[in-house]
Amino acid sequence: MNLNVTIKKSGMSASDESAIEGFMRFFEAESGISLSRNKQYLVAQRLESRLRATKKKNYADYLAWVQLAGNEPEKRLVVDLLTTNETSFFREVDHFKLMAKLAKEYRDAGKVLRIWSAACSSGEEPYSIAMVLDQYSGNNFWEIDASDLSESMLDIARQGLYPLRASDRVPQRYLKQYCLRGRGAYQDQFMIKESLRKRVYFCNRNLMSDVDCDKIYDAIFLRNVLIYFDANKKKRILQKVIERLAIGGRLIIGHAESVLGLIDGLEQVQPSVYIKAK
Questions:
Q1: Helix (H) or strand (E) holding 146
Q2: I need a labelling partner for 22 at 20 to 30 A (CA). Which of 168, 219, 224, 249 fits?
Q3: 107-132, pLDDT tens digit by residue?
Q4: CA 277 distance to own-chain centroid
Q5: How far apart are CA 204 and CA 98, in angstroms?
């Protein structure tokens, strides 16, 4: 996610400014992400398409309509529009070297390696993990759950269809084994093969809420998520996520992030990788 963009003030009315602030409060309540006041014109820009599509007179009318009871589909659309997902295949290569190592260890021990990609965006991260696990442990010794707040991103992830330029980061051997090049109208796209897609389970989860599963994972990817939250919300997210991590399991975060001073019971074993202590 990346909302670190501002746009110049362009003549917004006081009424619209108040409504946009209302949308920002709504977004924080839904996602936990707090937007600064200098983002209000960015918010207005992102919501403009829905304002027109719903034929509301102004942002105040649109906000009132969004907040009506039972208008859950539009609420999800607003959250999607205000959440920009930045991701790529095989981002931060050291993490995938670790996955290869763990895959071999679990395969040799005859155990299933269970992974959770906790903010998977449009699917590039979990599919990258899946390629590595399948390559190094075979078909029987791994499972991946992948979740995101954005339903529109999850739709893309489940489809597994990406612009061809996104394949630049995918190693050639993985492209040949796990991807299909589009033809005709799809010549500028590529697709993850069904045999790999069906091994990744995608679901909607809000990390600020209780994690609605009882599965315990051997590794959890929580990369480039914590940077968008204040310290209290970081602690809350980490507590909920770590509950689902096995003793001795790895928590993997972004290289620009840290959990030091936020939660006990984690030991850093390499940059951006922590192990849950016994």
A1: strand 142-148
A2: 224
A3: 999 999 999 999 999 999 999 999 99
A4: 26
A5: 26
Predicted confidence band of residue 11 (pLDDT cuts 50, 70, 90): low
Distances (CA, A) of 139 to 134, 162, 198, 203: 6, 24, 12, 22
**Tokens found for residue 86:** 């930045």
* Nearest-angstrom CA–CA distance, 64 and 183: 45
Please, which residues bridge with residue 276 across strands?
A: 266
Q: Are 219 and 270 in contact (CB under 8 A)?
A: no
Nearest to 233 by CA among 207, 271, 195: 207
pLDDT surpassing 80 at residue 66: yes
Confidence (pLDDT) at 1: 45
Catalytic residues: 46, 148
Domain ranges of the chain: 14-82, 93-276
CATH class of 93-276: alpha beta
